[in-house]
Specification:
- The protein is α+β, with helices and mostly antiparallel strands.
- Helix content is 24%, strand content 23%.
- The strands form 6 sheets. The chain has a 4-stranded antiparallel β-sheet with strand order 1-8-4-6. A 4-stranded antiparallel β-sheet has the order 11-19-16-17, with no helix packed on it.
- Strand 9 and strand 10 form a beta hairpin.
- Helix 2 crosses helix 5.
- The longest helix is centred in the middle third of the chain and has 40 residues.
- It is elongated, with a radius of gyration of 31 Å.
C-alpha cells in the first residue's frame, strides 16, 4: 500500500471546546465505522484550521483505535468533494497517488473484504483498548484488477447489497405485521375492526387429545412399522432415512396422521419442547415414547 498511496493524520492539538461550532467540518469516527462510503450528512462542525489536513474525493479513512479488534482498521471511502473538511483524531487517511486507476465504489468494498479485514484484525494490538499502526497498515498488500473491471465489480456488489437490504426490510415489515395481527387476535381488548372475533381462553387439554408415544427400539433397521423420535426431525421435517422400525403395535391409535403435533417432553435440554406439525401422510409411521401426540 505504501507504494501506491500515502497516509495523513487526523485532527491534532484540539480541545473539546473546539468542536461543535465553526465554518469547517470534520468526518467523525462513527461515520467511518458504520459506512463503507462516507455519509456527508453526518459530518460535525469545527473551526477552520489551516494546520490540519483537508480531505478530498477518493481518500480512504481507517479507524486506528477501538475497544474491540473487530473495529480497528475499518475503512470508509470519500466519494465526493467537501469544502474545508478534516478527519477525526482517532482515524488516519490514505490518499492514492494515481486516483484514476481506482474506482471509489470498488475500494469501499475491497478495503472491507474478508481477506483485508483478517489482516487488520491481526495488526490490532492491545488488551482493554486496541490500536493499529499506520506503518503496519501501509506495509500490507491489497489486490485490485484494472479500472474497467473494478467498476463492474463495484456495481454488482452494490446491486446485491441493495437487494439484500430490500429483503431484510421486507422481512422486518412482515414480522411487524405478524406481531400486530397476533396482538389484535389474542388481546383481551380487541380493536373495532375485530369485534366479530370471539376470544376465549382454554386449557390445551380441553381442545386436544393427548397420548404418549410407544415403546420400541428406534435404532432398529427393519420391521413392519416405522418409528420416529426427536433426533429424526430436521428443519421442520422428518428424516425418513433415520427412522427406526418396530415389528408389532398393540395400540393402533398411536399411528400418526396428518395434522398431528409431535412434542418432545423428555430428552436433553436442547430437545425438550421441540415440536413438529405433521403435514404429510407417512404410511405406517408411529411415534417413539419421547413424543406426545396432539390430534
Amino acid at each position: 500500500m505504501k507504494n501506491i498511496g500515502e497516509s495523513f493524520s487526523g485532527l491534532s492539538g484540539k480541545k473539546s471546546s473546539d468542536f461543535g461550532h465553526g465554518e469547517a467540518k470534520y468526518i467523525t469516527y462513527l461515520n467511518i465505522l458504520n459506512n463503507p462510503i462516507i455519509d456527508t450528512k453526518l459530518t460535525d462542525k469545527i473551526e477552520i484550521d489551516n494546520k490540519q489536513h483537508l480531505v478530498k474525493k477518493g481518500d480512504i479513512f481507517f479507524t486506528i483505535s477501538s475497544e474491540t479488534p473487530q473495529e480497528v482498521g475499518l475503512s470508509s471511502v470519500l466519494d465526493t468533494n467537501l469544502n474545508e473538511c478534516y478527519l477525526n483524531s482517532f482515524s488516519f487517511g490514505y490518499r492514492l497517488k494515481e486516483i484514476s486507476m481506482f474506482d471509489n465504489l470498488f475500494n469501499s468494498y475491497n478495503f472491507r473484504s474478508p481477506n483485508f479485514r483478517r489482516k487488520m484484525y491481526i495488526l490490532a494490538q492491545g488488551i482493554s483498548r486496541y490500536n493499529i499502526s499506520k506503518k503496519a497498515v501501509l506495509n500490507e498488500t491489497i489486490c485490485f484488477p484494472k479500472i474497467s473491471e473494478q467498476k463492474q465489480i463495484g456495481k454488482l456488489i452494490k446491486l446485491m447489497n441493495s437487494l439484500l437490504s430490500l429483503q431484510q426490510r421486507k422481512l422486518e415489515l412482515e414480522n411487524k405485521l405478524k406481531k400486530q395481527i397476533a396482538f389484535y387476535l389474542y388481546s383481551f381488548t380487541l380493536t373495532p375492526n375485530f369485534k366479530h372475533i370471539e376470544v376465549k381462553n382454554k386449557k390445551l387439554g380441553d381442545i386436544v387429545d393427548i397420548s404418549n408415544g410407544i415403546m420400541g427400539d428406534s435404532q432398529k433397521k427393519s420391521g413392519n412399522f416405522k418409528l420416529t423420535r426427536i433426533e429424526t426431525i430436521s428443519n421442520g421435517k422428518i428424516d425418513l432415512s433415520r427412522t427406526g422400525y418396530i415389528d408389532q403395535v398393540s395400540d393402533e391409535k398411536k399411528f400418526l396422521e396428518v395434522g398431528d403435533i409431535l412434542y418432545s417432553n423428555i430428552n436433553s435440554l436442547t430437545h425438550i419442547g421441540k415440536m413438529l406439525l405433521l403435514k404429510k401422510s407417512i404410511y405406517h409411521l408411529y411415534m417413539a415414547l419421547i413424543y406426545l401426540d396432539f390430534t
